[in-house]
User: Fold these one by one.
Assistant:
Number 1:
Amino acid sequence: MAKLRASVRKGRPRSKPLNAGAAKACVTFLNQHLPDGLLSIVQLHSDVGQSGGVWGVKRKATAASLLSLDAQTATLEFDVTLKARDQPEQPGSRASVVLPGGGPIGDVDQLRAALLALCSELPEAGSVLLQLPGASDAFSLPDDMWLNTTPYPHSVRHMFYSDVSSALQSAVADPDTPRRMRALVTPPELNMEMDSYRVGTLLELVREVALDFARAGLRTRLCVQGSMGEGALAGVPRVLSGVKKVRYARPNPRRF
């Protein structure tokens, strides 16, 4: 188990530390690719966006740009343009927003997670924040990601196999995870409700997961559900329909 946990820690993608250079790159990226989202953050989470103004004159934030990011206090500083009714716009106001969870923020992945929590009411911001410079990339898809062909290309099938294997290894290595688990994997080739179901993909997936556990130093055993019927009603599970019976032959010690 120690070998598996070490392998899981080593295989986790790592992002850049949130130093001054990385913070500046993130500020530039957000100003360029998420201007409307920054304005919504100011309107929803800052005192400037929630206040009614001075002497009862209601002001509204019409533009916002991110000035700086303090990783120690997890604070975003904004330059905000305000406009009151029947008055010209007034640029130069300042607003601060504290990220959920507080500081300090150690790397870009933590910053991305905090920004995603802050923008939970802005679904359009998610796709932009996933591309934050310096963050780890564990979600990109292959260029030949076509799911309308059967069988899938090898790279597409391997993507599913590796994702399932890494998820199961992370779950097994976590001491707080229950020992009995269930993995639900239903791309079209593994979905029994679709005519594109391919039993070969299921067998390849099971083989890859079992071999990965064995390489990690764990004893692995595969169990297949037996027949629930008798006589003419006996048969393999529906997901294995059409597969020949696999017989296990005990090794003959005299041959060694």
Number 2:
Amino acid sequence: MRCLAAVALICTLALPSLAVGADETALAGYSPRASQTERDWEGKLRAIPDPAKLREYMRRLSARPHHVGSPYDKDNAEWILAHFKEWGLDARIETFDVLFPTPRVRVVEMLEPVKFTAKLEEPMLAIDPTSSQKSEQLPTYNAYSIDGDVTAPLVFVNYGLPDKQEEIRERNQQLEEGVFKATFDPRRPTVAPPREDVPPHLNFAPMQNAAELLVRSAHHYQQTLLQKQASLGESGAAQALHTLNQQLIESERRLTNADGLPRRPWYKHLLYAPGVYSGYEPKVIPGVREGIEQKRYEEAEQEIGRVAKALQDESSLIEEAARQLERIGR
């Protein structure tokens, strides 16, 4: 979706160090002398990480299941603490009591046309020796679900696209005309699919238009940044750059909404949030996506408008930042 490409551009807006050639052009926001000092420090910093040590650290930290409250979680914390102190940091462990629910009974079954019971466990892999540690693993479960027993048809809704709309219309017509009854074979019993409402047409134009506007604003900013590279290192530009960066800090906040997501007001970001049923896994443009998945089409339409407004506000902020950048050095 084009709006995602626009959103990705936001991450590039905060006065980056521009690519330099062999002539060691000054970094954006630095004088030539300060640029060399900055490069020296960056070189020292890049030389510190040791890939072999990082690999060993990750192997050690992930050698056993280490979910919150587990024995290896505590072991990891103490191991990290010892290293922090070895490196000269004033570090300590703080303990907090938190609610961490885990399931006792988990069952996922398909009841018809044939019965199938899911194993709900991952297979062991020869290349991963930790995959055999069944006794310490948490069971697979949805960490945000409540207790309950739910039995319902499994329906794939898709996203209200024209081909899906036509498919549902045709199947509903077959149900009305008795096609499934006429072709029923008692030797191979099947269950006719339920009748579905045809998904309405959703107008994504406001969101797409806002995304294209954001792309243009981001391009304007980047072009201005390239043109102003030479003057950004001047002593008189420091305060202007500070003001500009303070404004750019607000760019991420423009993508939030005080009312939050539908039925989850604690999630304020309109472009990404953990999914309702997917735990920590993020969903992009969650209000629109989950409105469609849950057949709340009016809600999805409203969310399209809210996302469009957020992208428009973001575009306005970036456009104003570009104008501020243009005034530096005049």
Number 3:
Amino acid sequence: MKKLFLAFSFVSMILLVACDSGSETNSMSQEGKKSSDGSNDSDGKSNDSESVSSDSERGESSGNAEGFSASILGDSNDTGTYDMVTGTLTDSRDGQTYRTVKIGDQVWMAENLNYEIGNSYCYGNDLANCAKYGRLYTWAAAMDSVGEWSTNGRGCGNGVTCSAASVGSATMVRGICPKDWHLPGIGELFDELITTAGGSSIAGTKLKSIEGWKGSGNGSDTYSFSALPAGIRYSDGTFSDEGDKAFFWSSTEDGSDNVYSVNLSNNNEGAGLGNGRKNSGFSVRCLKD
């Protein structure tokens, strides 16, 4: 009887093990089925993908909502590196490097600005002239009237007056210049620079480059300002005076349509106080803050 009980117990244990094994096999089979038809693993990947897509869309939406382009998000691309030892300025917005020069108490770019923006042009629409002369900017572009890089010149342009550009204004306008540099007021551009360079009757010769001017118009470049005859772009899209004249914007307007400028000519040793139309294209020289 004892042997019979032990035999019965042994058979029962075998049956129980077989039952558990079948249940586990069935469970694994069901999980395998879910995996193969994608209802488990596939959904998990789909959720991850949707999350990434959603983050990406939020990022783009945030950028567009602020009105920024990818090139100017934050301040990481907006620095001006000035090296006093080498006398150079590197504009990190596009990587271009400019020579600089100290004249009296002022530090100037010794080359015309060549930062590309809307309403800036190469003379004759030839890219080689941008490399040679820098770009020709409308006054609104020079003032950064859209407020892309600063706010002081926002809204300044043709047909309107703005307080930051009024005669005697103490407001410094960065405009389109690199960070820590600005578009000079007429007092800085004409009164101070031209006076330091010998006065309006002779400053033209001392500020002009030693080559590039037509006729006998080359200068002595006494101060290494190296003014080049970049000419002008008119509002109708035509260009004039390459080799003959240089026109430099100030940040000081003369009414709603005109702006004070400094003009140099190949047939004059002096430097003239000009009055340019805001929708013309002139050169820009930036002054260190």
